[in-house]
Amino acid sequence: MKNLSLPPKLNREIETLILELKKVYSGDLISIALYGSAASGEFISSNSNLNLLILLKSTSLTDLKKSSNIVKKYKNLTPLFLTEEFIASSSDTFPIEFLDMQENYQILYGKDIIKDIRVDLKNLRFQCEQELKIKLLNLKRIYLEMSNRPADLRIPLFKSFNSILHILRNILRLKGIKPPYKKEELLKELSGHFKINDWDKILAAKSKKIMLGKKDIEHLFINFVDNLEEIVKTIDAL
Q1: Of the chain's two ends, which shows fewer C-beta atoms within 10 Å, N or C?
Q2: How much is the pTM?
Q3: Does 8-116 match 121-236 in CATH topology?
Q4: In what order do the strands lie in the sheet with 77-82?
Q5: Which fold has domain 8-116?
Q6: 202 neighbors 224 (Cβ within 8 angstroms)
Q7: Spatial separation of the C-alpha atoms in residues 182 and 80, rounded to whole Å
Q8: Which CATH class for the 121-236 domain?
């Protein structure tokens, strides 16, 4: 296994995990890949997950049960068990997820199936538009429910902020731009394409760099939704 930019303890755990999976599945284990922040060198132990793609010949429940006692031993581990057939038939359904995976990954065992995944940008645009519209409608519903309790808007604001940034990274791909990975750099790039007033304040508050009062939270929430509505209109025109 290649040296990973992870704490030594996590490196040892991953090595042990690979050995255990090889023992359990033998020839039915096709490959294991680490992807996401752990593969890009930006892993933060306190809030990052170890995302592993585990490729098997079969992902029936009977086969998955073989590793249930193994994977649950490892903290922060998020395993994704797939087959080659599922990947080949699903790139049109999950273009964001597969493009994100291709952006930062390392093969830990077996063959590299990730590099050959092909994503049609038409499918990417559709998924981005669909998910943004769903989140916009959901944020409006939340505001109606919580407008008399502005402090409670903090959690849905922070939660939706991360997921919407993730989608907008892929909108940049549609524009032919390789999106930055770090959120600060991503916001800077996005500000050149969309009206995103005060999104840097949301990030700063989420990172606990600044404190927000009730009025601040409501203002940021309303502004965030207004910006998102305009972004959706822009994407409609792409």
Answers
A1: C
A2: 0.78
A3: no
A4: 77-82, 50-56, 29-35, 105-110
A5: Beta Polymerase; domain 2 (3.30.460)
A6: yes
A7: 24
A8: mainly alpha
